[in-house]
Amino acid sequence: MRGSFFSRLLPQLSLLLLLSLRRVWTQEHVGTTPSRSPAVPECPEACSCSLGGKANCSALELPTVPAGLSWRISSLLLDHNRVSALPPGAFAGAGALLYLDLRENRLRSVHARAFWGLGVLQFLDLSANQLETLSPGTFVPLRALRFLSLAGNRLTFLEPSILGALPLLRVLSLQYNSLSALEAGLLNSLPTLDVLRLRGNPWACSCALRPLCTWLRKHPRPASETETLFCVSPRRQTLSLLTAFPDAAFRHCAQTLAARDLAVVYALGPVSFIASLAICLALGSVLTACGARRRRGRTTARPLLRRPLDPEGPTSQEDAGSPAAAATQA
Q1: Among residues 30, 166, 229, 262, which is most buried (max CB within 10 A)?
Q2: Half-sphere exposure of 68 (CA within 13 A, CB side)
Q3: Per the UniProt record, which residue ranges are transmembrane (predicted)?
């Protein structure tokens, strides 16, 4: 009976052993697997970061751009701080940045290499600062830029080399600065520009405004989006609309030289200078030779003038006082 009892109990014990081993294996391999959560970007000190790569550093009274920027940050909010300058490589490490907000700081200077490394940046807001000038090439690295705001600064001049060629820029805001004109090269280097905001500038309706007036006629806006742009100077054009000037109004203005004409001017300039210098040297040599010849002629003429007119008379006081002269007189 004992043999039959153990023979019936053995399968049950084997089943219980297998179940216990399976439970242990499940706890070891399944229970210890770490749960994966979405990665939070490395956050700069004093800022708050969220999923999706957004770093919020707004209104923290920051005097400089915070250190520790990561390539995982795609949006950086630095508005309403006390940043007064952007040094070279100010955003080093944030090469994946798409959105950069620097509104209402105290920016007075932006180094020409401040935005280096931000080749994918699409949105840049520098409005409501204290910028008076910008260095050539400041925005050249931002080849993917689509929106740029420089509104509410103190800019008086914006040369084409500052923006460079921005092939994807669609919106450029220059409102409330001190601009009186825009050069033709600036707008020609922005082939996809669709929105140009210009209100609040002291526009001078002179020949320098011709490129801007031409661009405004070629890019009409709906009535609801049209800005009212007036001339401030000269006096006879005060309160004249910029869009009211046809191309015929600029016929008296001198035409700009083409690239080939400029090349000819630059080539002939040094040549003409060297030629005029050679002519001056040749004339100087001729005049010097003529002067030397005239002086030689004068020196040869002086002995002839000193000869006596009477060859038989005394030639000097010594001859008059000689014994022979006395005997002759006696």
Answers
A1: 166
A2: 12
A3: 263-292
